[in-house]
Amino acid sequence: MALTGGGGSGRGGGNSGGGGAGGGAGGGSNVVAELAETSEKKTEAEEEEELGSDEEYETDDEEEGEEGAAAAGDAKPAQAEDDFDDDDDMPDLSTGQFFCEEVRAIGLPVGPGVPTEEELFAGLNCQPGFVCSRSELSADLRQLLGSGLFQNVDGRVTPISKDKKKFVLEFTFSEMLWQPMKGFRVAPGKTARAGAKLLIPQEEVERVMREVGPEPGPTGLKKLAAIKAIVEGWYQKRGYVFGYISHFEGMETGDIVARVVEGRVNKVQVVPVDEEGVPRVNAGEVSPNVILRELPFKEGQLYNAEDGRKALRDVFALGLFDNVQVFPKQNQRDEAKVEVDVMVKERPMRTADLECEWQVAPGDKGRPTLVSLVPGGSLTFEHRNIARQGRQATASVTAQNFLQPADDLGFRVDYKHPYVWGASDRNKTALNATAFNSRKLSGVFTPGPSGEEVPPVFVDRAGGKVALQQQHSRNSRSSLGVVLEQVTTRDESGQITAHGVKQLPSGMLAPNGPPTTLGPSGRDWVAFLQGNVTRDATYFVNGTPVGARDIFQVDQGLGVGTGFPLFNRATASLTRFLQLRAPPPGGRKPPPVLVLHARGGHALGDLASYDYFTLGGPYSVRGYNVGELAACRSFAEGAIELRLPLPVTSNQAYAFYEYATDLGSSRLCRGNPTEYFRRAGAGGSLGAGLKLGAVRLEYATDRNAGKGTVFVRFGERF
C-alpha cells in the first residue's frame, strides 16, 4: 500500500513556468509536457494550470534548447549532432503515444519501509513493453506527486534505439521535507465511526518516539517510512492485514498524526458457485445461515487473517462442500470497511454406495454354480443436508449374505443435529443419535503363547446412544451421552454361549471356562453414561503428524440392566509427535519424528468380560495377537517409535519398542481368563517397519517368546 502524506498540497514549489505537480524544471517548453496534455495547442500558462507537472524530452546526443519544441506540431527542434532527423527522435505526436521500453527512477530515497521503485511503479499506466499515451503519462505524474511524499516529480522521455521507436521514461524525484519531529500519535481514519478506538497499544506509539523521534534533521520520506514500518508491522504480525496508515497529518508543525485504518468487517456474503467456479444464479441447497454460523468473524469486528483460515477450515469440515474459498476485500467507497465473500462449491447431498463381496459356495456336486454365488458386503445411504440446515443422517447395512441375512446382519444409523442450542452457541453443541448392531471377535477368549486351541467367542452389541458433543476450541472437544445396549456372546456356530472353553490335550473341550457375560444366559442388558474429552493439537508436515494428542474417556454404569451393574471404567491416552528437524524448504520429504505414547486404564465394580481391557495387538503391543498378553481390570502401556524419511521417496522407515502390563489386575477378573489361557500378563516387543502410503509393513519380535513375525497393517498405529 502506498505511503501517503497529508502535509503536501499536491502542488509543486518550483520557480519556473512549468510549476505545479512537477515543480517546474526550466523556462523552456518541452515535448513530453505536450504529450501528457491534449492534442490542441496550449500556452505555457495553460499547461501549468492543467497538467501541473514538469516533463522533459531529449535525444541521445543533445538536450533541447530553451526555445525548442514549444508546442506539438509547431516548433521545429534544433538540428542534432547525429545525422538522423529530429522528427524521427520524437514520440509520435500525431497519435499522442510512444513505446515505453523501460521506466527508471532517479533520486528516489532508499531505506527500510521506503517504497521501492517496483512498488511505486506497480500501479502506473506506463509500463515497460507497452505503448503509453499522453493521458496515461499525465495521470502517472499526478499519482506520483499526489502521494505527498515528493516536492517535485519530473518526467523525461528519451529514445534508446537508433530507429527511434523505443523510449525510456525517467521519473526524477525530489523528496518533500517538513519540520523536525516533535511528537507523534495515532488516530482513526477519516471514515471511522464516531468514538472508535484503535487496537494498537500506547506502547507501540511510544516506541515510535523512542526509535524515530531522536533522529536529527527534518522529517522526510525515511522517517515516515520508519513510522509506517512500526505501526503497520504491529498489525501485520497479528494478522490484521487491513490495518495500515492511510495518511499523515501535522508535518508542518512537527506534531505528526498517523491516520490508521484497521479494516472492520462490514458485509459477509455466501456465494454458491458451479463446477466452473462461476457464481450460481439460483440459491444453493445449503442455507447461508449454516455457513455464517461457522464463521469466526462477524460484522463490526476487525478482520484477521487467522479468522479467515479458521473459517476456511470450519466450513470445509461441515462435509457439505467440495471447495471453499474466503475472499476479503476493501470497500471501494470506504477504506475502513472490509467485505468478505465466502465462495462454496456444494457436494451431492444425497448418496448411496454399495460395496459387494462375492463369496463362492459349493453346489450339490461340490462345484460352484451361479445359483450358489453369495452376495455380501455393505450398503450405505447418506443425506448430508436435511431441511437445508446441515443436519445429517447416515444408514449402513452389512451382511455376509444379503439374500439370507441371519445373525451376522449388522447395521448402523447415525443422525447429527448441529447447533442444537441455537446458532449463538459458542461451543457448537451438537446432538448425535446412533442405533447399532455389530459383531466383533472377543480378544478375551484367545490363546496365550502356548498356541493351544481356543474356540472363538463373538460379541454382538445391539442398542442405541444419544450424546451431546461440544467444540471448545480448534483442538479441544468433549461429549457426554447415555448408552443402552444388549450384549450377546456367541460361539463360532452362532449359538449363544455363557462360558469360554479351551481344548484339552485329549482333544476334548474343557467346560466351565471364564463367564462371557454378567448373567448366566450369555445375554446382558446394560445402561451406562459415557464421557469423552479430546485434545488434538496435531498437524501434518509433508504427510506425517506432528504435535500432541490427549484422550480421556470414562464409562459409568447406572445400575440398570442384567444384575443391576454399577461400574466405572476409565482410560487415558497421551501421545506426542516430536519433530526432530525441519524438512528442507520446498521439499516433500517428511521430517524425522520421535513418537512417545503412554496409555493406562482402571475399572471398578460389576464388569463383564466384554468390557475387560485386552493387551496385545496392532493397537496395543505389536508382535502379539489381540489379547494375547492379558485380559485385565487395570493396565499401563508405553511405546516409543522413531520415524525417518527414506532417501529417495517420501515414505518413511521406523523402529519401535512397546511394553504393556496388567499391573497384577488379571486375578480380579471373573474366571481369570489370563491364567486360564496361560498368558503372561505383561510383555514387550521390538520391531521395525516401512510406511508406504496407508500401508504399514512391519516386523516385530515377541520379547517373551523371542519369535518374530511379519505384519501388514493399514492406517496409523497412534
Could you name the key traits of this structure?
718 residues, mainly beta, Ubiquitin-like (UB roll), 4 domains, 17-stranded antiparallel sheet, five-stranded mixed sheet, 10 helices, 12% helix, elongated, disordered N terminus, Bacterial surface antigen (D15) domain-containing protein, D15-like, BamA/TamA_POTRA, membrane, Bac_surfAg_D15
Structural class assignment: mainly beta
Instruction: Compute the separation of the termini in Å.
Output: 47 Å
Number of domains as seen in the coordinates: 4
- How much helicity do the residues have? 10-25%
Q: Write out the CATH superfamily name of the largest domain.
A: membrane protein fhac: a member of the omp85/tpsb transporter family
CATH topology of the largest domain: Porin
Oligomeric state of the chains in view: single chain
Number of helices: 10
Write down how many β-strands occur, each being a DSSP E stretch of 2 or more residues: 32
Shape: elongated
Uncertain regions spanning at least 5 consecutive residues: 1-89
Second-tier CATH architecture of the largest domain:
Beta Barrel
The overall pLDDT average reads 82
Rg over CA atoms:
39 Å
Major pleated sheet: 17 strands, antiparallel
Instruction: Tell me what portion of residues adopts beta-strand conformation.
Output: 35-45%
CATH class of the largest domain: Mainly Beta
Region (Disordered): 1-94
Subcellular location: Plastid, Chloroplast outer membrane
Protein name: Bacterial surface antigen (D15) domain-containing protein
InterPro entries: Bac_surfAg_D15, BamA/TamA_POTRA, D15-like
